[in-house]
Amino acid sequence: MHKEMPESDYPDIRELHLFSDMAHDNFMALMRGAYVQAFPPQIELITEGDPSDFLHIVLTGSVDLFCSWNGRETSMATVRPISTFILAATIRDAPNLMSARTLEKSRIVLIPSQDVRAIFNVDNSFARAIVAELAQCYRSVIKSQKDLKLRTSLERLANFLLRQQKRAAGEAGFDLPFEKRRLASFLGMTPENLSRAFKGLQPYGVTVTGTRITIADQSDLEKFAKPSPLIDDHST
Amino acid sequence: MHKEMPESDYPDIRELHLFSDMAHDNFMALMRGAYVQAFPPQIELITEGDPSDFLHIVLTGSVDLFCSWNGRETSMATVRPISTFILAATIRDAPNLMSARTLEKSRIVLIPSQDVRAIFNVDNSFARAIVAELAQCYRSVIKSQKDLKLRTSLERLANFLLRQQKRAAGEAGFDLPFEKRRLASFLGMTPENLSRAFKGLQPYGVTVTGTRITIADQSDLEKFAKPSPLIDDHST
DNA sequence: TTTGACGCTTGATAATTGTCAAATCTTCGG
DNA sequence: CCGAAGATTTGACAATTATCAAGCGTCAAA
User: Fold this and answer.
1) Which CATH architecture has domain B151-232?
2) First to last CA, chain A
3) pLDDT in tens, A113-134
4) Any CB–CB contact under 8 A between B194 and chain A?
5) CATH fold of A3-148, please?
6) Average pLDDT over residues A51-62
7) Cβ of A194 < 7 Å from strand C?
8) Is the dihedral of CA A110, A114, A115, A118 positive or negative?
């Protein structure tokens, strides 16, 4: 089932900010203990509440982080290559707060959490890289929380579309990066409401054809969305 | 205006997990560069968007962290002694994502952010303590986000009251830790709605008299609130 | 004690969002 | 190409939450 990691994957992982500065030997020690596995779509990799046995890295494909309570479920984030997830739980040796499932066929690296903690204890560069990563993650969630608490669903959608447009190099037309039902959950609304929200943005020049979005006039939409770097710029 | 820190405050700060393991010299270096200041209530200590010039520590009093957008405002957290705030922005040398204001007369320690980053770079124990702190903060926000996305306002209030009751050593009666208007904002609702939400919890044995809350039967309220350690236990 | 200021509550109403059911569209294996 | 399964859309309706305005209570300065 599990396969040792092929060395051909090392460079991609080494390039991650999290691993780029650590000592060679320590990096190799982490890699030697790691597994890589190809998962089909819709496989639950992690269940919230379970202990965090592995630090995960998405090499290809994509992973949905989601949470459940009382029969309800909500999508928290989508992880795309190449990045890690559940770092905080791994470091604290605490139960996972989120579940994770593959959205598509995905290659995932699994690094035993105890190895991560052991190297964290001896490699100072690694420890500092983890600080940078956690600070970044923390700030991202704060931004997301501001988005949720300060904006209506229509405003959240409008700003989401503007962020996506920016990721698409500012092109007027681009494709949604995932299903609408998941987008709805991510934005904290129902699929029905998302459908209506798209219509509600038509007066601001937003056109939807299937998964394809077109923004006629970016500044027009911005007048409504009022994007702020303190909420929408996920790079700082 | 600014006062150098009296050495009598050193032990309290040293006891914080963040500082307890670092080298003596480095701790002293941080303290020597630090200021302590007594602020009256309702003073804005930090404005979101500003660069993070100081790591803050609340010695006495309390501080509200809040965010604004488009004329709206929401309370994100209340900081009580003795703890730090805006660590993530300090470490990343990034603009603050939240504003901060004193809720009451408060003594605040200000440690220049560049000092914190400098010591972070040379003190490995400090770096590791920051990892633990940031991981904890991150997990707290995730829990708060789950609370917001998965629960109705009535459920959020019910669970909030149960958490407060736990903090009050499980006593049936306890006082709200801050104004209702701020509680409403923290829970993501209007003051009017909070007032009605309290009434909505009467059938589950919740009584409100001014700032005093009484929970007649904890298990009765829990049957409605369905608290979960993955949302409500802020110690892990 | 009076007078404001301010926070809290209440009622009426509106806006937003969610639910349910049915219709339509897409996808994909046979 | 067909047809079933699942996603999306739409409409009707209900629940939740916000807004506005008025009233009540408390507290502190005059």
Assistant:
1) Orthogonal Bundle (1.10)
2) 39
3) 999 999 999 999 999 999 999 9
4) no
5) Jelly Rolls (2.60.120)
6) 97
7) no
8) positive
